[in-house]
Amino acid sequence: MIRTFTTHEVRKQEELSGKLWEFEPLEGASAGTKRNVFVPACIETYPGFEAYRGESVFRTRFTAGGNIRLEFKGVSHTAAVSVDGKEAGTHYNAYTPFDVILTNLPEGEHTLEVRVDNRFGEASALHVPNDYMTYGGISRAVALEWLADLYIKQVHVTPFRNVSDNAWNAKIEVLAANIGSKARRASITGLLAKEKLVWEETVIEAGEEVLLSGTFSFPEAEEWNMEHPRLYELKLVLSENGQAMDDLIERVGFRTVGVKDNRILINGRAVRIKGFCRHEDHPQFGCALPGEAIAYDLSLAKDMGANSIRTSHYPNDEILLDLCDELGILVWEENHARGLSEQMMRNPNFERQCETVIREMINAHYNHPSIYIWGILNECASDTEYGRECYEKQYALIRSLDSSRPRSSASCRFRTDLCLGYPEVVSYNIYPQWYHDGTVTQTLDDQYNWVQKETEGAGKPFLITEIGAGAIYGYRSPGHEKWTEEYQAEALKKQITEVLNYTACQGMYIWQFCDVRVCREWFSNRPRTMNNKGIVDEYRRRKLSYDVVKRLYSSYSNYWD
Ligand code: ADA
């Protein structure tokens, strides 16, 4: 499944995933053997490959010719793509999409090979042994598309309200490309919320791209919000001499995001965040959850009264974003980095790899109305001078790509964070009642007061981006010790009540939605080699805390007014 809606009516598209491919491991006892495996899926879900870390090759065949675009929504974590034995492109990072374009491919059957690498080492600064599992494989959908010489590469829509009459407007930026060998004339038209959109005809030189921008008014558009997540289709068509060459269908939700004083505003209203941090993880699917399983997770989160998901700690499969757009769930989407020390941030690939993730995440996910904030660098070295420089650059990069959304970073640098002057929202991960015995309110007071009195984060919205406690599903004990379901339920009760009653704080994300597998190097303090702080376990079975969260989250409204 590529998206939850059709994205092309003119451009021909075929899903290459959703079927068996040939898999050939290149390491270990089974190196060189071949078997058929379902794509998308994670290697570690194939029997006999539960602990596989190494290189492997995935193969399939497709029939096509002319200009071909292969889109990969996610390959974990490094991919080298070749067609008919010729290298066609490479990509690093499991969690962002990439494409490969081949021009003038002869008509007929072709072999597509994806060489996948999920090893840790210096070449990978962001996928490191961590408190979640880095799986291997083709973990998200793969699409094959037939392109004309001219095609629509991207559209970004930024809705805003007109100051004079409050009507909805949107800035629409269309990037069109010419992959042919001669200059072409492109006319782009569109339809959105009953309004016709027209751009002036433009010449695009061979091999060039042109960005067409326009601001349009949408008098009939209705607002997208959490309660009524109204979505519109934007249909763009690119024509030459009156003949449609290409199209792109995207979805738009008319809403604004902002920050005023210490509040986070959606459509001008101060929102109270009641969220879950969620990893893409499931014993059956690894990180390659099918749409149905993602939708099930979201239905549980909604049932518990949550209104937001934090995609900790990487950009998510676009299916989740499509569903959140449809369900009115706010999304904190973040780049890929968790708990990197200064030494790890000094990996020679770190800055380049982070920059690529940020660019690919924002370019691909810009239009999702559910995304209300971009997060970066969870719990990295924001307390050192070198770390500060990295945060500053990454925040600046986000701003250059998207000036419409606030930015933040989930920090654990108590009283030492040097970076609170850069983002619009100050966020902290705290674990009172789990890693230490202080009360929740004391911990909040301590952190909040320091931010207000001693940092450039003063006066900014303040969020708790993680709080939680561990419990092993089914472990009950009258002593209510740590790791029992009883202990978790009691801790969560205090954590939620005290955070949501702390009116200076704009809301919270529970760590975490479900139990997740962690890398084997992370066994310490991680019974079962799992992070057991889920409110449901890895199979989504409800722990005692489920009803506690549900009762408490449901008793606070989505807004402060
Ligand atoms: C951190 C981190 C999470 C997870 C959590 C925990 O704050 O951001 O990824 O490791 O702690 O469970 O301790």
Index terms:
single chain, alpha+beta, eight-stranded antiparallel beta sheet, 561 residues, 35% strand, 32 strands, binds alpha-D-galactopyranuronic acid, 18% helix, globular, 8 helices
Helix percent reads: 10-25%
Ends distance: 39 Å
Task: Tell me the strand order in the biggest sheet.
Answer: 26-25-24-23-22-30-29-28-27
Counted by DSSP, the helix tally is 8
Shape: globular
Structural class of the secondary structure composition? alpha+beta
Task: Describe what this molecule looks like in 3D.
- Helices cover about 20% and strands about 35% of the residues.
- It is built from 8 helices and 32 strands.
- The strands form 7 sheets. A 9-stranded parallel β-sheet has the order 26-25-24-23-22-30-29-28-27, covered by helices on one side. Strands 1, 2, 3, 4, 6, 7, 8 and 10 form an 8-stranded antiparallel β-sheet that branches. Strands 13, 14, 15, 17 and 18 form a 5-stranded antiparallel β-sheet that branches.
- Strand 28, helix 6 and strand 29 (about 460-465) form a beta-alpha-beta unit.
- Helix 7 (about 485-500) packs parallel to helix 8.
- The protein binds alpha-D-galactopyranuronic acid.
- Alpha-D-galactopyranuronic acid (ADA) binds near residues 378, 379, 429, 511 and 533.
How are the SSEs ordered, and which strands pair?
Elements lengths: L11 E4 L3 E7 L9 E5 L15 E18 L2 E2 L1 E6 L2 E7 L5 E20 L19 E2 L3 E6 L2 E12 L6 E11 L5 E9 L2 E4 L3 E3 L4 E10 L13 E9 L2 E10 L4 E4 L2 E4 L2 E2 L2 E5 L13 H13 L4 E3 L7 H10 L2 E5 L7 H4 L4 H16 L5 E5 L9 H17 L5 E2 L1 E2 L14 E4 L10 H15 L7 E5 L18 H16 L4 E6 L5 E2 L12 E2 L13 H10 L7
Parallel strand pairs: 22-23, 22-30, 23-24, 24-25, 25-26, 27-28, 28-29, 29-30
Antiparallel strand pairs: 1-10, 2-3, 2-4, 4-8, 4-10, 5-9, 6-7, 6-8, 11-12, 12-16, 13-14, 13-15, 13-17, 17-18, 19-20, 20-21, 31-32
Bound molecules: alpha-D-galactopyranuronic acid.
